From TrEMBL:
This is Helix-loop-helix DNA-binding domain. Pfam families: HLH. Residues 114-124 have a biased composition (Gly residues). The keyword Magnesium does not apply. Keywords: DNA-binding, Transcription, Transcription regulation.
Length: 221
């Protein structure tokens, strides 16, 4: 019987074929590990940049708010929300005060007027009314309004004036004596304010300042 010759190359080939899957598996594992490392590194870098942006925004908020350097993030954001709400209320108040194009005089009763102030019976204290005048701006307007208020025996508790583009709007909170009847007192006040509005109505507006200005005055005259 003749046996086929043994081939040394065949044995080597067999051993080579047997080792090939192991080498391929190691390469795949190494490639996968490298890919995961790059993904983790990329995610870490993105997270680092995100934190930098957040910290930058928080630093900006701290610089805008007074005494906010010692607040933590939650307290800082709460203070920001409070400030934004307060600013929104102020914007609404200012919007009401912006003067319009037409001349206007109005008087209305305060809802909680009369006896408001110093607690107790409120005897002798008048009721509070709100009056407003919208007209062209001119020098001495506030003094004219003050004299008109005194002419009807009212007392100015608070006065605000906003002037934009040569137009002005004055808002007055007045304490009116209870001795006068409500209807007559209100009509007398409105007539006095109209008299102020009509004074020098034909004066050229160019002689007055066109710059926007806001003033708040408190008087007890």
């Amino acid at each position: 019987m003749i046996w086929p010759p043994r081939s040394s190359s065949g044995g080597e080939l067999g051993r080579g074929v047997g080792m090939q899957p192991v080498a391929t598996g190691e390469a795949v594992h190494e490639t996968r590990t490298a890919g995961e490392t790059r993904a983790v590194r990329s995610h870490s870098e993105a997270e680092r940049r995100r934190r930098q942006r957040i910290n930058g925004h928080l630093a900006t908020l701290r610089s805008l708010l007074p005494a906010a350097t010692r607040l933590d993030k939650a307290a800082l954001l709460g203070e920001v929300v409070r400030q934004v709400r307060e600013l929104r209320v102020r914007v609404e108040e200012v919007a009401v005060m912006v003067p319009g194009e037409g001349d206007e005089v109005g008087v209305e009763e305060e809802e909680d007027g009369g006896g408001g102030g110093g607690g107790g019976g409120g005897g002798g204290r008048g009721r509070v009314v709100r009056a407003w005048v919208c007209c062209a701006d001119r020098p001495g307007l506030m003094g004219e309004l003050s004299r008109a208020v005194r002419s009807v025996r009212a007392r100015a508790v608070r006065a605000e004036m906003v002037t934009v583009g040569g137009r002005t709007r004055s808002l007055l909170e007045l304490e009116v004596s209870e001795a006068a009847e409500r209807g007559e007192g209100r009509s007398a006040l409105q007539a006095a304010l109209w008299a102020v509005l009509l004074t020098n109505r034909t004066a050229p507006a160019e002689s007055y300042s066109k710059r926007a200005r806001t003033s708040t005055r408190f008087s007890k005259t």
